[in-house]
Design brief:
The chain is an all-alpha fold. It has helices at about 5-35, 35-45, 65-70, 70-80, 100-105, 105-110, 125-135, 145-150, 155-160, 175-180. The chain contains ten helices and no strands. The longest helix is centred in the first third of the chain and has 30 residues, at about 5-35. The termini are far apart.
């Protein structure tokens, strides 16, 4: 039995809206996971942007509880932060969970204790460390973030995963003080009764 014209239009509208949503979600995930810094690094080096990461081998991941057995100080701060909630998203796989979401698979490191067998942020450039953050955090297209990245300011210049002074955003210092550490010319405006203009 053929559909009434109004029912057919409604069904078509639902299909178009659903398809649009799927395309938007796919593009959002692709853009967020790639991240501005990784694209910028690839373009500046003349290399092609990295393709979507292949599925991880679960046997190479040991889980945050194993990491905590040796890294007690870091574990204490990790347990207080939002990153400790990542293991609740089991559908994404071990490469998106816990310590190993940032530091990579820990099997070889846990077995050998060799610091070279794990991703250490102190050994990474600003572009590389920010690329690790942008794997999950979708700020790559944010104009404020882009401006900082263009001026070679990385995520870890302002944020600290293991020793934040402001827990809410894992900041190294309260925001006005943190901003003023670089933007000395605008810091006096914070004490005025109006805010400085955002550029």
């Amino acid at each position: 039995m053929p559909l009434k014209p109004s029912t057919a239009r409604l069904a078509m509208g639902v299909m178009v809206a659903s398809l649009s949503l799927v395309c938007f979600a796919a593009s959002k995930q692709r853009n967020g996971r790639t991240g501005f810094v990784q694209i910028q690094a690839s373009q500046s080096s003349g290399k092609e942007p990295e393709k979507q990461q292949a599925a991880a081998d679960p046997s190479q991941y040991v889980g945050a509880e194993t990491c905590k057995t040796c890294h007690e100080e870091q574990a204490s701060s990790y347990d207080k932060g939002l990153h400790s909630k990542t293991p609740l998203s089991r559908h994404q796989g071990p490469e998106w969970q816990g310590c190993e979401a940032c530091h990579g698979p820990g099997q070889e490191h846990a077995e050998s204790g060799d610091p070279a067998k794990i991703i250490r942020f102190a050994a990474l450039s600003r572009l590389e460390s920010s690329g690790r953050c942008l794997k999950c955090h979708e700020f790559g297209q944010d104009p404020l973030w882009q401006k900082h990245a263009e001026n070679k300011v990385g995520c870890l210049d302002c944020h600290s995963m293991h020793a934040p002074r402001v827990q809410a955003k894992l900041l190294k210092a309260p925001q006005p003080q943190l901003c003023a550490s670089c933007h000395k010319e605008t810091s006096p405006e914070f004490s005025r009764t109006f805010h400085h203009k955002r550029q």
